[in-house]
Amino acid sequence: MAAVQSATHRTLNRLAITVVVVTTLIYLVPIYWITTTAFKPRSLATTVPPTLVFEPEVTAFVKLFTKRVQLQGEVDPEVYKKAPWYEKRVYDAGERIIKDADGNLELSGYPSRFLNSLIIAISSTIFAVSMGTLTAYGFSRFRMPGEQDWLFFILSTRMLPPVVVAIPMFLMYRAVGLVDTHVGLIILYTAFNLSFSVWLMKGFIDEIPVEYEEAALVDGYTRMEAFFKIVLPQAATGIAATAVFCFITAWNEYAFALMMTNRRAQTAPPYIPSQMGSGITDWTTIAAGTVLFLLPVAIFTFLLRKHLLRGVTFGAIRK
Amino acid sequence: MLSKLDPGSPAARRGLSDVSIRNLFIIPTIVFLIVFNIFPLIYSLGYSFTDFRASSSAPANFVGLQNYRDLLNDEHVWNNFAVTAKYVLVSVGGQVLVGFGVALLLNRHIPFKGFITTLLLLPMMMSMAVVGLFWDLLYSPSWGIINYALHLEDFAWLSNASVALYAIAITDIWMWSPFVMLLCLAGLSAIPKHLYEAAAIDRATRWYTFTRITLPLVTPLLLIAIIFRTMEAFKTFDLAFIMSSQETTELIAIKLYRLAFQEWQTGESCALAYMVLIMVLAITNIYVKYLNRVKER
Predict the structure, then answer these.
(1) What does the pLDDT look like over A22-73, one tens digit per residue?
(2) Which of A301, B48, B79, B238 is most buried, most CB within 10 Å of its CB?
(3) Nearest by Cα to B106 from A109, A100, A27, A18
(4) What sign for the dihedral angle of Cα A160, A163, A167, A170?
(5) What is the pLDDT of residue A315?
């Protein structure tokens, strides 16, 4: 009896593993598809039936970064010969890169949007994590009247729908000239991430034994010194994980960026879809922009894998 | 309960007092959140009683509860809420089925389990706007791979008024099932093995073991996942806004955006924002209650 049961058990187990592997593969198809589209020649991006085998090329990435126009007639062979490799790629695709009077390439909107995304995400992460760590320590170590209510208040600000906050913020920003500025978005993202950072860091700091600090106090440290020299180094992993989460949230944010910026401080998420509207959609270029944008997130997800559960539950569940 | 530092110890009296350190650490954050979250909301509460339009220079006139009355009598707004409710049901329901299902499958010895789990979690870390964009490519009626894989010729997903909402929900399910899976896996792996051994000795059926051991012990974490996803689905803006502009996919957040930033009915949009806000706060309250309950165990 027992032997029979374990045999069925083993078969079921094997079946489950097969299903898991198949599910994972199906799950990854969308990501695989957008990634390969970025490396396809434009003529193969939207074929029926879909093209699976092709010679990968980086033309889409060159196009992503440059301003181009359709070629009128043939390229002068001399010009073609002298052109750098990336320009040749664009010529091969039947387009040419627009140059200014000095012969410098004109860049598309993408690099500046990517840079905006980086500046805004990094700055807001630094502010949110440093303020959040201090506040988390305060809540973790000291008695505070109405502690639970304050923590609820802090978390509730995170739950506000962006559109609800954006309406009055837009009016206030317009009054003080913060619409379409980096500072404006940095403030909004800091506010958005701050509550998350407090909750997550509180979870990490709660795990550091109070005895370490008490020992330091006995040795003559002040509370401040104990915090900076004992607690902060102990919390380093937590701070790093929190920072990566805050960065990803700010990096991915779309609604605030759509409503509060249009050009100068626009980030990549509202910019990438806006390319769809202009003329015939060149999916290879959009895919290239998407892949570059998703790459940091994919890398960070692997770095964060041990902290993901904690992150998505605001530090409440630690495994 | 967590042990806190003893404020009375002589060592703590050197340097700044504990109370001043606490205030120094906590108050800036609270002030920041009040200035940039609560103050704007008070500001918009004021506007919700006026006919203010941010696009014109005309001064705001006090109209009392008129905006609220108009919204409650507007069948379009009721329709927006109905669409949102349908979307929440379909997408959260789908996420629970897929997420819990995959978690059950994953809850055993599998080679490269950690790697597979992380791969499955990738979609949830991505930008909703960008995910919506590339699902557009997959959903394309003529050359999208979804139609190709399902042998549907020229079937319109996103431009079809009766299907578009479900198509968006499918994308949402793809993106967020891993979230449910992650929480369920945590719940499953915390179930003590001896319970299953005891059930095996009693020759309990698989179904009995599942409904009497697995399900009740995973429920707390599953509930947290459901409440959180319900709240997020209720607020959905990015995904639906990028993927479709049908009337049948106009979720309440999209309606709010249009009212505020396209029709510039600032006063009325503030009133609608308040209705949404109250609902979100109610769900947040439930969510935090459950979160604290799980934390205490």
Answers:
(1) 999 999 999 999 999 999 998 888 888 888 889 999 999 999 999 888 888 8
(2) B238
(3) A18
(4) positive
(5) 87
For A191-232, the pLDDT digits (tens) are 999 999 999 999 999 999 999 999 999 999 999 999 999 999
A-B Cβ pairs (cutoff 8 Å, strict): 296
pLDDT beneath 70, residues of chain B: 1-3, 5-14, 296-297
For domain A110-312, give the fold.
MetI-like fold (1.10.3720)
ipTM: 0.91
Q: Chain B neighbours among A 277-296 (CB < 8 Å)?
A: 283, 286-287, 290, 293-294
Task: Report how far apart the first and last C-alpha atoms of chain A are (Å, whole number).
Answer: 36
Distance CA B35, CA A13 (A): 55
Partner-chain residue, chosen from B36, B118, B221, that has the shortest CB–CB distance to A187:
B36
CB contact under 8 A, A157 and B38: yes
How long is chain B?
297
Which bin fits B73, alpha (ψ -120 to 50), beta or left (φ > 0)? alpha
Instruction: Please judge whether B9 and A135 are an interchain contact, meaning their C-beta atoms are less than 8 angstroms apart.
Output: no
Alpha-carbon gap, residue A96 to A103, rounded angstroms: 13
Sequence ranges of the domains in chain A: 2-38, 59-97, 110-312
Q: Is the peptide bond before A77 cis (omega within 30 degrees of 0)?
A: no
- CATH topology for B66-296 is MetI-like fold (1.10.3720)
Give the whole-angstrom CA distance, residue B147 versus residue B44.
Answer: 45
Report the phi/psi class of residue B64: left, alpha or beta, with left for phi > 0 and alpha for psi in -120 to 50. left
CA distances from A61 to A42, A65, B62 (A): 12, 7, 54
Domain assignments of chain B as residue spans, ordered by start: 16-47, 66-296
